[in-house]
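Appendix C: a fully annotated inverse folding record. The material below is reproduced so that readers can follow the format used throughout the book. The structure is listed first as tokens, followed by the designed sequence.
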């Protein structure tokens, strides 16, 4: 797996060089069903999740939401904040791409929110096969 090359020497680039736009940002109190609808409307496979102050708390994927919805214990009251693995981790835009890729592989993440020092979502770093 590797990120999209953005320069002649991708291993020397930063996360900021390789990240995509953050895309749709949603609130933690959104239900799983509404989040899936937002994803479908936006034609995206992930959403950046924010708290009531607009700070990024994580990222949720279509695969994760579908797995939650398909679980026998699912109810329409489950909110994004109720999904334990929504929270973190994050990447700094100044981190090297190699560092971020290693962290993503270790945690088996396909995408990682990129945030500034104040917790604002700047973009998303995604691995490609």
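Designed amino acids, in order:
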């Amino acid at each position: 797996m590797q990120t999209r090359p953005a320069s002649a020497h991708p291993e020397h680039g930063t996360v900021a060089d390789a990240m995509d736009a953050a895309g749709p940002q949603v609130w933690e109190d959104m239900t799983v069903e509404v989040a899936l609808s937002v994803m479908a409307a936006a034609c995206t496979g992930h959403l950046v999740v924010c708290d009531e102050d607009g700070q990024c708390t994580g990222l949720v994927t279509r695969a994760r939401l579908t797995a939650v919805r398909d679980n026998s214990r699912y109810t329409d009251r489950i909110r994004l904040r109720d999904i334990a693995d929504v929270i973190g981790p994050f990447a700094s835009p100044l981190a090297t791409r190699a560092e971020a890729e290693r962290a993503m592989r270790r945690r088996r993440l396909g995408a990682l929110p990129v945030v500034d020092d104040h917790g604002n979502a700047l973009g998303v770093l995604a691995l490609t096969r």
